[in-house]
Amino acid sequence: MNAGKQAVLFEQAPAGQTIPFGKYKDQPVEILLTDPDYVTWLRATMGEKLKNQYPLVLNYIVAHYGEPSRTPDHNALQNRFLKREFQMQFALAVTPGMATWVHLEDLDLNILFENEFARREADAVKFAQNQYSALPSMASKIEAAVDEARARIQKNKTAWRERGRLAIYTGTPHDGVLENPVEVRGLRFEEIGADVVYGVGHRWSLVAKSKHSGGQDDVVAGCEEAVGITVQIKPVLGDDYPAVLRAMKAVKTKFLLVRDYTGIGATWGEVKQVFALDAIRAVLLEDVERVHVPESFNRIQLPRF
After folding, report:
1. Are residues 237 and 130 part of one domain?
2. Domain shared by 140 and 267, yes or no
3. pLDDT tens digits along 228-256
C-alpha cells in the first residue's frame, strides 16, 4: 500500500486509534491536532523513527498537517519576510483596509479638540437639564445648573490645553517627522505551526496627563489599529490544495502565500474561494509584489497642536 492510500485509511480509521509513544502515549491520535508545536518537534527530532517505526502516525500527521516544505524555494520565500517592505506588502495584500490606517498628517488636531469639548459640553448641559426637568418645582434651578455645567467644561478645556500633547505609541518621532508610523512587531519563523508570524500596528492619541499621581490620561482623540499575520508558504500549490487547507485549519494559520499555482482541477479563483470558506486568505506572490506601500506607512509629517 502506498503512503497516500495509507494516510487516507488512517485518517478515516475507527475511533480508538492511539499514539504508541511519547508525550501522548496511549491517547487518541486526534490529540495531535491540538498541539501543532509538538508535531513540529516530532518531525524535527524523530523524522526517521516516525518513518521506520510509526508510519501510521507519520501518515496521520501528513494527512492533517501536510508534507514538510523546507526546500530552497520555500526558504527563499520565507526570508522575504525579513525585509520591512515585503512585510508591509503582504499585510496590505491580505488586509486591504490597512491602507486607510495612517491619516495623522491630514488631521487638524485643533478641530478634533474643539469638537470633542463641544460634545462634552452638550452632554453636560443635557444631563443638567434632565436632572431637574422632571420636577416642576425645581425648574428654576435648570438655568443655574446649565451655566455651572458649561463653566465646568470650559475650565476643564483650559486645563486640558495646558497639559495636552500628541502621544505617539508607534514609530520614532524626530523634529516633527514620524518614521515608521506603522510598525512590525514580533517577527518569528516556525511558530505555532506557521512559517511566518508577525503583527502590524499603528497607534496615536491626543491626551492630557492627569495632574494627580496615578490618574488616568484624558484622551480626546486617537487611533489604534493592529492585525496579526500568520502565514503558510507554498512555493508551488497544485491539486493537493485540500491537504494544505486541512493543515492550515489544524494549526489555525490564516494566510497562504503561493508563488506558483499549477492545479488543473480548479482555477486559482476557485481555490481562493475554497480557502475563504474557512476565513483563510490565499494570495499569489505576484499579487503581493504589485502592492504599493503608502509613503505614510514609512514617514509622515506630524500635525501641530
Report:
1. no
2. no
3. 999 999 999 999 898 889 888 878 899 99
